[in-house]
Specification:
By secondary structure, the chain is of the alpha/beta class. Helix content is 44%, strand content 25%. Strands 2-1-3-4-5 form a five-stranded mixed beta sheet.
């Protein structure tokens, strides 16, 4: 009986973890969006370096994320006061909590960071994470794989994350 109960609890842990990420977000909260990082793991990137179209797509995603958060009633705070720190951080989504520290200095309630990982020109992954600045707790976070390296596919991946996880109704 006790083993069955333990097995049931262990089986339900992922469900409980996801349920915790569905806590309502504070209306009108200040969000420090530290941008999207591009990580090129492809052979193409190793040989050819940075592509202008992918750099432009990163800016496109950042604009779309900002627009959606603003449309949902959040205030996107300026990152100008931490611009030097941000410029010296390779990937704010993976910096051992420096994202939360920068957001705290900006007076934000939440910090938002994202990544696009390019495996090949066909396979990419987009992730977005929202953390509570006071506790460092992840409130929302999801990664999706996309196929095709186009403006449309990148936006579709980001919109999926925002619609189905961050702002699902």
């Amino acid at each position: 009986m006790q083993r069955t109960l333990i097995a049931l609890i262990l089986a339900l842990l992922p469900t409980f973890a996801l349920a915790r990420m569905d806590k309502p977000l504070m209306p009108g909260a200040k969000v420090a969006f530290l941008g999207m990082s591009f990580i090129d793991l492809s052979t193409e990137g190793a040989y050819n370096g940075v592509r202008a179209d992918e750099t432009a797509r990163l800016k496109l995603l950042e604009g779309a994320a900002r627009d959606r958060f603003a449309a949902e009633g959040f205030v996107i705070v300026s990152t100008d006061p931490v611009a030097t720190d941000l410029a010296n951080t390779v990937d704010p989504a993976n910096c051992n909590g420096c994202d939360v520290g920068m957001a705290a200095r900006l007076g934000a309630d939440y910090v938002l960071v994202g990544e696009v990982r390019k495996i090949s020109n066909l396979i990419l992954s987009i992730s977005l994470v929202l953390r509570d600045v006071r506790s460092g707790e992840m409130l929302r976070g999801l990664a999706v794989d996309i196929r095709s390296n186009t403006d449309d596919s990148w936006l579709r991946g980001l919109r999926y994350i925002l619609k189905n996880h961050f702002f699902k109704t």
